[in-house]
Amino acid sequence: MIEMKNICRDFRMxxxxxxxxxxxxxxxTEGEFVTLVGSSGSGKSTLLNILGCLDRPTSGSYVxxxxxxxxxxxxxxxxxxxxxxxxxxxxxxxxxxxSAVENVExxxxxxxxxxxxxxxxxxxxxxxxxxxxxxxxxxxxxxxxGQQQRVAIARALxxxxxxxxxxxxxxxxxxxSGKEVLAILKELNREGVTFLLVTHDKExxxxxxxxxxxxxxxxxxxxxxxxx
Length: 228
Description:
Shape: globular
Radius of gyration: 18 Å
Distance between the termini: 26 Å
Strand order of the largest sheet: 6-7-8-3-9-10
């Protein structure tokens, strides 16, 4: 599903070049649940941006589901994001003046072949799956943190992506809500969705079948875990 070879990402900073990613090799197969762990500045977010086709590497090869994603232009990367990838963020990234169902509909707006009625039906279906059938018309300010994150998960799922990239999805939640969200992600993974979850929490990382640790722009450990 994902194959990276010798990925480097440099940023020009005035009169010097900052190397953020250094010769990253990474393979993720379909259906895996992988966590990416590392302290601030380790390169996790930069790697996630490249994996999510939000950025391009300075050098190296990135093949996503058989397609070379490392050299695509902006429009081509946007097309991949809208069909193959789903995103979940720590800060939910919901539109504050928009209802739950309208927030979930947003990724489908770019699919002109989907009618307005079907778009609404799909959004309602995934929100019901998240247990939010009685919150369809609520705005984010009317929802708890856990409910907002479930709306964000529904938004990530509505396009039926092959891979979901989650950046600290439990980081802004209390422990109870965090466990509920993690349970949802694990259930989706058992149904075949591939997950890459970025976290600084080693306890969260233990819930995956594989944990990758980054430090100073490099992968220093890639371990298969035995789940309870």
